[in-house]
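User: Show me sequence and structure for the first protein, then do the same for the second.

Assistant: Starting with the first protein.
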Amino acid sequence: MSSHRPDSGIRAESGHLLLEGNTMNWTKASAVAETLSSVAILITLVYLVVEIQQNAEATQADTRQAILDSDQQYLELFIDSPELNILQFKADLSDEERIRLSYVLITFVRMRESNWLQYENGTLDDVTWQAYRLSLSTQLSTPQSRAWWQNFPVERIFNSDFISLVNELLANQPLFDRAPHITAFD
């Protein structure tokens, strides 16, 4: 079977396209097109994987920077008001001192809870989380801080899984009378 279009110089014959004397096999053309399409899809997938990985790394870097900024603000609180650190070791606190220390500890524990949530969600890497986890158990190992954790209704304001984590950390963390950075000056 043959068809011919007199104006175009194109004629189809037995599954072949005849164009000015050249034969093009539609089956081969289709196979080439499918191969090129597959290669294009593969290149696109590789590109997307690289983009996702770079985005994840950027998100973790942003998370670490935000945590660092938050920690620096927290430390500035103690620079501006060093008596807040002393409250953690003082035996008898006035009501005003208890309130101040309570808000300082809520702020700190809330920061670490946020870090833990970021770790659980995969936006904070394990090495960074382990460092912050250690600071959590250290901060809550002063006499007043530990008493606060044990007596404050933490279940009202913190995640229950986070509370369990803190309790596990503190079960093996002894109290200390003075912060190590203070005794280093003795």
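Switching to the second protein now.
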Amino acid sequence: MSTLGAEKTEDCEQETGFSIFMIEFHTKSVIINNNQNRHHASDHRLVLLTRRFASIIHQPYRRMLPDHYVLGKQKKEMGMQDTTFRENVVIITGASFGIGQHLALQLAEKGAWLALAARSQEKLNAVSELCAKLGGRVVAIPADVAEPALCQHLIERAVQEYGRIDTLINNAGIGMASRFDELQDLTVFEKVFRVNFFGAVYCTHYALPYLKETRGRIVGVASQRAKFPSATADAYTPSKHAMVGFFDSLRIELADSGVSVTMIYPSWVSTGISTRALQRDGGQTGTLSKHEKNAMPVEVCARRILKVVAKRQREDIMTFQGKAGLWLKLIAPKLVDEIARQSTE
């Protein structure tokens, strides 16, 4: 499948499914409103409706648009080369695999000057070599973003190499797969927060003076789960909620500085993150989530991120279901809770 086709062509399937859902939602709302005292019947209908909506949320990412549309789009993009990131100094954390790796590769093709950070020097070197072959200028800087001193070194090393910072992409993150009430202590919980939340805060803190000088861009790669509750109180969802709260507030603080803050909310992406999620003992799950098997291709996700970052957009909620879920959360929060519970593996 063409990733361009995959990127643009799920809407017909999603809109059809959601139309069915809306009909069911309206019908059952009338029934429930006319029988307010029949709580058990209402709860039963709510469960049925939840299962229907949950099945829509996890539809496979597979439908394509007609070939003539895809080809026309490709021709249009070939004739309109975006120079936004040419010689743009971009720092990417979590750049050794997944979304970070593909952001680096696509930015290299655009002629960006890259400072790539991750814990593994070997993996960073491999990605750096690929970026150099694609035309990008690149420096690999090993760093664990959970350590503030290493975040400071990352920023200073990038400035030493390029003389400035134009874009900071806070992408590093780890998952967690454990119930809160199963934790013997909070060691793993705190580790996830140090990477997902404080790692982004540390890097932003040290980079901000340079970003103000260039009127640059700050990017936070969060998760769709940062907009909704999760069925388990592991550290992943709370850390992403904290990340969003910080960057949304920072956006207001920096309103007159010329620095933009863009938040990214992907749903499941084919990165293998579920296999590396931490269990209560600190070990990785080693198991691929069923949701990730039909997830958005990582190169499609990276392309979309760069598109919204180039335009300095406020945020990008990447799925129709996520956008619809925000509306549903306002009028039926209990239903959203049920959807989260039904969707948990």
